[in-house]
Structure formats: C-alpha cells, structure tokens
Amino acid sequence: MAWPIFGGLLDDASLFPPASLPMADAVAGHLRHRAAWYREMSGPFVCADAKIIELSAALTAAGVAELDLALVLPGGAAGLDAAVDGVFADPRLRLRAVELPAAALESITTAIADVAAALDRTPLAGAAAFIEVPARDLTTAAARAVDDRRYLAKVRTGGNTAKAFPDDQTLADCLVTLAQARLAFKCTAGLHHAVRHRAADTGFEHHGFLNVLLALAAALDDAGREQVAAELADRDAVRVAAKISNLDVETVSAVRSLFTSFGTCSTDEPVNDLVTLGLVSKD
Q1: How many Å separate Cα 117 from the centre of its chain?
Q2: Which pLDDT does position 3 carry in this prediction?
Q3: Strands 205-206 and 197-198, how do they pair?
Q4: Coil, strand or helix: which one is 28?
C-alpha cells in the first residue's frame, strides 16, 4: 500500500524557505531525487517566476535536457502572461503546474474570480492551475468558486511565522470543505515531517503530512470536524503509520484524487521519515 499513496506526493520546493538553496544546488538536488529509488514519490521542481531565467542558466550549466516545472507567482496574476511566456521560451521546461494566490480583497470569491479570469486568458498547454486560498477563507462558497472554473486549490499549511500555521480546527474545517466539494488541492509550506510535531528550533507546531492524509480520509468518510481535527493532532508516530498502512485501496485512491501533492523544501526529510516508519523501503 506504500507507493500508491505516496506517488508524486513531494513537490521539490528547495528554493523556498527555510531551505532557500542556491539555484545550482537546488537543481542538483532535484536531479538526485529524480534518479533515486524513491523517484516515484518525487514531483516537479517548484520555481518562482522571478527565477526562471536563473533556472534556465542552471539547466545549461548542468547539461539538463528537460525538467518538470511548477511555476509559482507570489505576486499574483499580474505577471502571469510574461511568466508563462518565459517558461515556454525554454523548451527544456515542461510546465506541469501554475500556482497563484487569490489577492486579499474584501470578498474571497471576487479574488478567486479575478485569478480565474487571468488563467482563462492564458494558454497553459494542459498544465494544472492552483489558486491559493487562505485556509481560514476556504469556505464552501470559495471552494465552489474555484471548482466552477475547473481550477484546483492550494492551501498554506505553514510558513516563517507561527501565524502562518493554521490551527487544527481551521485546517480541519478546510479539509472537510474540500472533501465535501470533492475539490482537488495541494498543500504548501510547513509539512516538513510525516507526523505532527513541535519544531525544536522555532517552537512552531507543524502538521504532519501523514496526519493530513488521514484527516482527509476521515473527512471523505463523513467524520465530524472534531474527528478530522483529532487526526491532525495525533503525535503518536507508530499509531499514525499503522493507520496509513491499514487504509484500503479505495480510500487511498479517493484521498490522492483530492490531495495531489505538497511542496517540501527538503525531499530527504519526508522520505527518511517514511523509511524510519517502515512505510517505504529501498528494496
């Protein structure tokens, strides 16, 4: 049951904090992940629009023939056309995803509509498009606004401050909403390890990516919000790993049809956690 639930789960966001690797190191690391025994878990390389030229230069220096790319536009939809043109100008870059935030406006549905309109106008050559909505704002109406335009959601699960991490109830509410809407989504930031924990260096409470998988499974099974939040809060690594191992094929398929991936600044960390927990093996 290991590979089906973890396949393509780890987007390589090593350019972003807290890793913030130099471009050459990030590209070298990505090539290592794509050639490793766990390559089936490894997703596209995540790069901000402002660094595409630098990425192209790094690919030339490293002799890379092609690279799957998830393009992030932190500044929003205003730079979308130019950014996509820049990607398509380099034939080695295979655009797999575009990720944009919904700007903080009075109405989240209006903000989503503005981003969706920009995406509608821009040829993406089949790439998936994710609209980032703050977890606290991902209401039923917001989910419907994303889904009605046939786009996907992006949920921020951490960051550089404690406030960037949604609490259990907020994230549980978000997952229930996504499950009820059957809206596919990815997560970004904060999911550094498999199981819920407090970071020793910052004191921040981090959600575990296995906890998120289990919480979504509970939400899809119509569990109450309290139970979904309890799955997020579980710190018992042995129990969490056992629950993951015991998910049936139908549940795994349902969960991964919605939870597409998450961005990690260190692919090694989640892979090592999964090995330690006995959920994946090099053999």
Answers
A1: 23
A2: 72
A3: antiparallel
A4: helix
Query: Residue 70: helix, strand or coil by DSSP?
Result: strand
Rg of the chain in Å (alpha carbons): 18
pLDDT at residue number 2: 55
| Spatial CB neighbours of 152, under 8 Å, sequence gap ≥ 6 | 128, 129, 130, 131, 146, 183, 184, 185, 186, 260
pLDDT for position 1: 44
Which residues of the chain fall below pLDDT 70?
1-2
172-231 pLDDT, tens digit each: 999 999 999 999 999 999 999 999 999 998 999 999 999 999 999 999 999 999 999 999
| Long-range contact set of residues 133-137: C-beta below 8 Å, sequence gap at least 24 | 133/102, 133/108, 134/108, 135/166, 135/170, 135/171, 135/173, 135/174, 136/166, 136/170, 136/174, 137/108
- CA dist., res. 218 & res. 107, Å (int): 30
Query: 205 has which bridge partners?
Result: 198
The beta strand positions in 54-171, using DSSP E, are: 67-72, 93-101, 128-132, 152-156
SS3 state at 103: coil
